[in-house]
């Protein structure tokens, strides 16, 4: 009787209690190869496997991997059996072939004695009994299933047990099937039979009934029992409700999982994942349903009320909240209604007596607790935005309509003595619309507006702006248990305020944190942050660590509609955006309902492992283990990171790093778990993957090697070969070049030698020229000095003579003749000096620019003979030119012409009634030019003087005034052409001038 009462209590309780859930539906439109899901199982690695009539499917929580090109005649599969914990899961293919799922991959294998899904005994075929709904469409099928000590054989109206050791048989005369469905199921090692006639559950051991249980839900004719031996799970479907059935401590425990709104008659396979709290339902026609259970409860307003948009709420009692309309809600739904009328939804507060302060347009409403919040007291013309009190004062943040003609509000922070809102102790004005304020310490307040955060000093009555950014719109100001202040904003995330300095916290992956409403802190040190797109949880310690070191990472855990909300959009914009209740629950207002939950009971789901064993290389799938070998001609590689994870994919943090690329930093990959590489160069590359596995930021790592062999022309040996060829080519080129350079150097040496010799000759000539020039310069100096000295005397004499003539008043004829004669002689002497000097200068200049040329000596002498012939004839003198007409000379024509001119001039001048003969002789390069006259002849002193002067022309003093300048010029000119002259007085009369000249081309 006690068991019966207990069973009834469990049954009634299970009917009353049901969890909130959401459903995901998968079919051929979004991943499945076929809409009939025959069986469901989870392997030891955490992957969910499905059998369909078009292949085997592996599911990791985000994507389906379909295996339907297996080496079988067809791809139709039914139930699973085997040992998941031992990584041995089997299913049957065509012609008795067995498909083994091992190491996360299916493969066809041979049938073994341990894994037989079909046996024959006594001419009866028995199929393996692993799930009671497998053969529902095939009446009359016989089943068998092995136990630890024997085997059970199930036929339509009987059950036979055969002991493995003794081979003894036990026959149970029971109707084994009901509507073609076997009544027998197994939990752990216990075998149970459903006896619909006695309404009992019979326990069978070794082929005998040993006990019975009264379980109305199991024996109800309307109930369907879904049993899977490989999963060791039993479920009861009754109406639209689904229950889980366990057997422990010799009693059944039946708990209601869910009550569906749709009929469950098409369900043929069931699996419950205890870890992730998900129920998988396989349909015969509609694919796969995944039901997720949650600890979040979303409460909506009653159907008679308008839409369930909530803003400001206050805790009301230990487990409820009240909104601005006076409606009270708990986790279980609507509780009562206080009927607050005409209130705005954005402000609600308690005063020191637990009266509720609300707002009606620009008026303040006070609902008194003593009157059960039924009566109100109104205060006019106060637009209260935020309010709090302490033991000393009442603080109000009020909005004022701007009076400068612009649209909008300014703010004023008022400090009152009491709730009459009449006696003002202090007021602080703000230019912008106020949003929120909070007590910082005994002497300061923090105040937020739509454009900034301010620190208000109650002592000095000053306001300091804390944010440099003029666009910081403050949503909320929160103080955590450790005394830190946190600022949430609209559009710019949230900040830590410390030492009057704001530190911006990082965004989440989708930047939803940018619009944060408020922060509630639980007892484990986690912050719960409501946003416009989801609810986020993060350890405060991570945020504080980030404030110290910006390189550290902050991981936000996101809760969304998948977790049980009606909407992802939570509401802010009110003075209260979240509540902590006395029972430990948190409540957040949203755009569609109030979300209740106990933060300490909300579990974080993280993956336990990652598997990198699949790749798509140029569109072709390839499986590998630790090492991925890729052909060098492959262009694109897609590596799949398989991670069994059945919670919100937003919280799956997978980061990769590939060596050999330009950016060797951790890079997040998409939710599809695919990492793509294009045109990876040859070599051995390391691919590292890490995945977040805890709230504290712990990762697990996985590493594989990607080996891409080089083309033959990229191998080391080929490079060595090419290098050797190039070295040989370089060697021969170098040898050829060296040979060429040697030859070239030899030619250059010869050219240099030749040019060196030429240069030496030139230098030698230049040295000789230098000496000559030096001699010439010295001679010219002497010549100029002598000219200066010699000219001075006649010039002075002319001057004195002229002066004497001027001083004489009258001159006699003799005196005049004498004076004029003196002036004539002196002037004539000066004239001769000048003419000679001019000739010398002309010859010297012409010699510098004269080019050596070959000419006829005869023609030169002939020109001079013709020139002086008229003067000679006047003196009755004959000039005879006996020069060899064939004689050609290289001697400077200008110089030789000047020399001959001077010598002929002297001879003509001093020869009368005589002859002047010019003859030549040649001895190799020596030309002898002899000029002989029959004049008065040169005296011995002159000959001695000129001979001595010729030998020592640099040192001898020139006697131009005494001997004239003509022969001096000749001696200078001869020195210029390396010539000599010999003076000889003839025996009879006259003088001979013998010129010894060198006839060679001047280089």
From TrEMBL:
<feature type="domain" description="Histidine kinase">
    <location>
        <begin position="786"/>
        <end position="1001"/>
    </location>
</feature>
<keyword id="KW-0808">Transferase</keyword>
<feature type="transmembrane region" description="Helical">
    <location>
        <begin position="711"/>
        <end position="734"/>
    </location>
</feature>
<protein>
    <submittedName>
        <fullName>Signal transduction histidine kinase</fullName>
    </submittedName>
</protein>
<dbReference type="InterPro" id="IPR003594">
    <property type="entry name" value="HATPase_dom"/>
</dbReference>
<keyword id="KW-1133">Transmembrane helix</keyword>
<dbReference type="Pfam" id="PF07494">
    <property type="entry name" value="Reg_prop"/>
</dbReference>
<dbReference type="Pfam" id="PF02518">
    <property type="entry name" value="HATPase_c"/>
</dbReference>
<dbReference type="InterPro" id="IPR015943">
    <property type="entry name" value="WD40/YVTN_repeat-like_dom_sf"/>
</dbReference>
<dbReference type="InterPro" id="IPR036890">
    <property type="entry name" value="HATPase_C_sf"/>
</dbReference>
<keyword id="KW-0418">Kinase</keyword>
<keyword id="KW-0472">Membrane</keyword>
<keyword id="KW-0812">Transmembrane</keyword>
<dbReference type="InterPro" id="IPR005467">
    <property type="entry name" value="His_kinase_dom"/>
</dbReference>
<dbReference type="InterPro" id="IPR013783">
    <property type="entry name" value="Ig-like_fold"/>
</dbReference>
<dbReference type="InterPro" id="IPR011110">
    <property type="entry name" value="Reg_prop"/>
</dbReference>
<dbReference type="GO" id="GO:0000155">
    <property type="term" value="F:phosphorelay sensor kinase activity"/>
</dbReference>
<keyword id="KW-0597">Phosphoprotein</keyword>
């Amino acid at each position: 009787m006690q068991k019966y009462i207990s069973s009834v209590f469990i049954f009634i309780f299970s009917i009353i209690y049901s969890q909130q859930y959401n459903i995901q539906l998968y079919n051929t439109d979004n991943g499945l190869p076929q809409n009939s899901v025959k069986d469901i199982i989870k392997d030891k690695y955490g992957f969910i496997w499905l059998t369909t009539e078009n292949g085997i499917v592996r599911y990791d929580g985000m994507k389906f991997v379909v295996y339907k090109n297996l080496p079988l005649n067809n791809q139709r599969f039914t139930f699973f059996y085997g040992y998941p914990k031992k990584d041995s899961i089997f299913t049957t293919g065509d012609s008795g072939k067995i498909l083994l799922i091992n190491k996360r991959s299916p493969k066809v294998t041979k049938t073994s004695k341990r894994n037989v899904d079909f046996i024959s005994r006594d001419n009866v075929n028995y199929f393996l009994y692993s799930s009671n709904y497998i053969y529902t469409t095939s009446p009359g099928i016989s089943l068998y299933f092995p136990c630890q000590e024997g085997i059970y054989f199930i036929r339509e109206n009987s059950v036979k047990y055969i002991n493995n050791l003794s081979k003894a048989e036990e026959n149970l005369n029971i109707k084994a099937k009901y509507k073609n469905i076997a009544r027998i199921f197994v939990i752990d090692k216990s075998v149970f039979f459903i006896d619909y006639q006695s309404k009992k559950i019979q326990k069978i051991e070794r082929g005998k009934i040993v006990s019975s249980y009264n379980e109305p839900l199991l024996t109800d004719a309307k109930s369907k029992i879904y049993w899977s031996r490989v999963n060791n799970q039993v479920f009861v479907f009754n109406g639209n409700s689904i229950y889980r059935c366990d057997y422990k401590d010799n009693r059944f425990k039946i708990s209601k999982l869910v009550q569906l709104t749709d009929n469950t008659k098409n369900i043929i396979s069931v699996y419950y994942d205890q870890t992730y709290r998900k129920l998988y339902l396989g349909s015969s026609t509609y694919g796969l349903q995944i039901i997720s259970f949650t600890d979040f409860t979303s409460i909506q307003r009653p159907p008679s009320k308008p839409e369930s948009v909530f803003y400001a709420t206050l805790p009301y009692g230990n487990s409820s909240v009240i909104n601005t309309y006076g409606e009270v809600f708990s986790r279980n739904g609507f509780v009562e209604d206080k009927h607050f009328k005409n209130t705005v939804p954005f402000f609600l507060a308690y005063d020191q007596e637990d009266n509720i302060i609300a707002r009606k347009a620009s008026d303040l409403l006070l609902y008194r607790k003593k009157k059960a919040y039924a009566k109100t007291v109104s205060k006019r013309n106060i637009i209260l935005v935020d309010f709090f009190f302490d033991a000393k004062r009442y603080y109000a943040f009020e909005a004022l309509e701007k009076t400068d003609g612009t649209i909008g509000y300014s703010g004023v922070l008022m400090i009152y003595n009491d709730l009459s809102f009449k006696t003002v102790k202090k007021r602080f004005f703000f230019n912008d619309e106020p949003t929120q304020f909070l007590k910082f310490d005994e002497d300061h307040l923090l105040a937020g507006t739509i454009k900034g955060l301010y620190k208000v000093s109650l002592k000095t009555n000053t306001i300091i702006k804390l944010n440099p950014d003029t666009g910081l719109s403050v949503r909320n100001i929160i103080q955590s248990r450790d005394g830190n202040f946190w600022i949430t904003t609209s559009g710019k995330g949230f900040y830590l305020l410390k030492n009057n300095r704001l530190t911006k916290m990082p965004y989440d992956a989708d930047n939803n944190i940018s619009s944060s409403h408020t922060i509630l802190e639980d007892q484990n040190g986690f912050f719960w942050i409501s946003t416009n797109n989801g609810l986020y949880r993060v350890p405060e310690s991570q945020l504080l660590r980030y404030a110290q070191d910006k390189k550290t990472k902050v991981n936000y855990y996101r809760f969304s509609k998948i977790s049980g909300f009606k909407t992802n959009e939570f509401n802010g914009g009110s003075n209260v955006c979240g509540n902590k209740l006395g029972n430990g629950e948190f409540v957040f207002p949203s755009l569609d309902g109030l979300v209740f939950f106990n933060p300490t009971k909300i579990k974080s789901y993280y993956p336990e492992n990652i598997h990198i064993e699949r790749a798509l290389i140029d569109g072709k799938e390839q499986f590998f283990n630790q090492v991925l070998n890729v052909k060098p001609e492959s262009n694109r590689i897609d590596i799949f990171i398989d991670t069994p994870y059945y919670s919100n994919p937003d919280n799956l943090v997978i980061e990769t790093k590939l060596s050999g690329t330009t950016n060797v930093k951790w890079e997040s990959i998409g939710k599809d778990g695919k990492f793509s590489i294009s045109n990876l160069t040859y070599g051995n590359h390391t691919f590292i993957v890490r995945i977040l596995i805890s709230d504290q930021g712990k990762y697990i790592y996985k590493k594989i090697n990607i080996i891409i062999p080089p083309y033959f022309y990229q191998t080391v040996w080929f490079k060595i070969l090419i290098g050797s060829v190039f070295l040989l080519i370089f060697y021969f080129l170098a040898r050829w070049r060296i040979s060429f350079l040697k030859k070239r150097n030899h030619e250059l040496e010869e050219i240099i030698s030749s040019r060196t010799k030429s240069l030496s000759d030139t230098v030698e000539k230049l040295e000789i020229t230098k000496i000559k020039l030096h001699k010439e310069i010295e001679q010219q100096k002497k010549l100029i000095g002598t000219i200066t000295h010699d000219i001075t005397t006649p010039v002075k004499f002319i001057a004195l003579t002229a002066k004497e003539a001027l001083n004489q008043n009258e001159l006699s004829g003799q005196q005049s003749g004498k004076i004029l004669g003196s002036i004539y002689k002196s002037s004539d002497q000066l004239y001769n000096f000048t003419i000679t000097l001019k000739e010398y200068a002309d010859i010297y200049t012409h010699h510098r620019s004269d080019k050596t040329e070959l000419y006829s000596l005869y023609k030169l002498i002939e020109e001079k003979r013709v020139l002086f012939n008229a003067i000679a004839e006047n003196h009755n003198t004959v000039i005879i030119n006996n020069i060899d007409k064939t004689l050609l000379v290289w001697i400077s024509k200008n110089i030789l012409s000047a020399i001959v001119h001077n010598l002929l001039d002297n001879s003509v001048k001093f020869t009368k009634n005589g002859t002047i003969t010019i003859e030549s002789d040649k001895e190799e390069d020596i030309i002898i030019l002899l000029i002989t006259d029959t004049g008065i002849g040169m005296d011995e002193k002159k000959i001695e003087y000129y001979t001595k002067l010729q030998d020592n022309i640099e040192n001898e003093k020139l006697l131009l005034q005494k001997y004239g300048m003509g022969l001096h010029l000749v001696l200078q000119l001869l020195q210029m052409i390396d010539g000599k002259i010999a003076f000889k007085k003839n025996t009879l009369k006259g003088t001979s001038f013998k010129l010894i000249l060198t006839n060679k081309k001047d280089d």
